[in-house]
Write a structure and sequence with these properties.
Strands 1, 2, 3, 6, 7 and 8 form a 6-stranded antiparallel β-sheet that branches. The longest helix has 34 residues. By secondary structure, the protein is an alpha+beta fold. It has 2 domains: 39 residues, no CATH class; 338 residues, no CATH class. Helix 6 packs antiparallel against helix 7, helix 9 packs antiparallel against helix 10 and helix 10 packs antiparallel against helix 11. It is 43% helix and 8% strand. This is C6 finger domain-containing protein. Keywords: Nucleus. One of its GO terms (molecular function) is zinc ion binding. It comes from Colletotrichum higginsianum (strain IMI 349063) (Crucifer anthracnose fungus).
Length: 491
Amino acid sequence: MSMRDRTGTASETITPTHTPTPMPMPTTTLMLTLMLTTTTQNSGQRRSPVTGKATKAVIRRTSTGKKDGTEVKKVGRRKGPLLPEQRKQASEIRKLRACLRCKFLKKTCDKGEPCAGCQPSHARLWQVPCTRIDIKDIGYFMKDWKADYERHLGRGVSVYNVKGFAQNETVMWITHGYGFALPVYVREVYVADESCFQVDWVESCLTDQEPIDFELRTERLDVGAKGVSVEALSDYLDKHIDGGFEDFIQDHFEGTPFITEILKTAHRYYVKERMPVIRKALKLVLAYNLTLHITMVENQGEEVPLDGQIDDEDSKFYGKTVAPVMINFQIKCAMADMWRELQKEILEELSALYSSVYSGERLKNWPTIFMLASILLAVWEEMQFDCHYRVPDPAAVNKFCNDMETTPVGVIVGLFHAISQKLPAFMDWDTAKHGHLLNNNVAVCEAMTEVRQHVIKHEAYLRTRPDASFDRNDFDCLSNKFLSKLVIRAN
């Protein structure tokens, strides 16, 4: 009798018709029977693996790829643990960093350009370049770019021309004409060639007129030994944000369609929410534009006459006094350093904001991302114009513009559209219907309503902007070239 049969017999119930005479049982057999009976009674509902229901055999299928033996890349989420060779590959990928598409889709990222893992990516990511560059590093196209202040380097402001400085320093109040002033210590400078004190600038106030060139001789003054105070400069910019920012935008951009309105909306949003990163972005707009702005001197009093007063009535700054050329240069250099640092910090914060997107919280930081993206693109449009306008080498200009558009602009625009899928297009926004998607935040909903009005107002114009090209006599020729891509979704 098998062991299974014996176990079955031990658990049966027998009703005898008469009492048989018990037969002697061997000691070994008796002990075995008792052990089997005890085990069966204590097992409860558990079944013996032998008597239980038979499980299906696991069949492992090994795919050899195509019929010709070449391997086929499988797209989608993996199932089960990584194989040893996959684990090694994943380790290498982590060192390389995944491309932005694979990060967004949470896919394994392969080597190569474009990455094989993201090549058949979801349609919403078609605009995002396949790049492993982190968002915080997409300002790489700025490397060695100095077009915002470089032209002033060739105006005789060099150690070879300067013979010495006066010992006495006095305070001069520098301004850009928007109601605030920056204190700077200045001193007289002695030079070999005094032609270096000439300063020139261009103004374009009327759309039906060509830009007007101006030139003036300025005072023989330079910044004091300690240079321009970074703290004082930062405070000077802060004053523009806290009072008069919208006036600055209106006056400086002279009503340029859409960009003027979107920057005012961003400022109103900041006033309500007080987010430090939005303040940095507004400060970036100020610092960049004032770097390329004419620098002037506040009235020093009638007893201190200065060279450089603008007496041409065609100038927007008629009656003002232009800052000494060497001080003008130092202010521009300090302002240029400041806006570069601000842009670097904004990109770092934008990268951190997208981390929440990769973790699945698509709309958590959406309003902040939109504001930062809008402001960055607005500044980059200006940079393209200034590069065309100021850099004489066409090859250098084309390289700068291509480097900017291929990856940085594509990343900003493409990723923003990817996280906006659950939201309506700007023109379709309705706070009553869609406000809950953004937690019914009053400041956000009001900003969205404003943006909707701006987009509807300028829709026809915005749809023509992606094809904008440079025109030296039109200072608005590249305006909204990138912003239009952000607010008008491509089909």
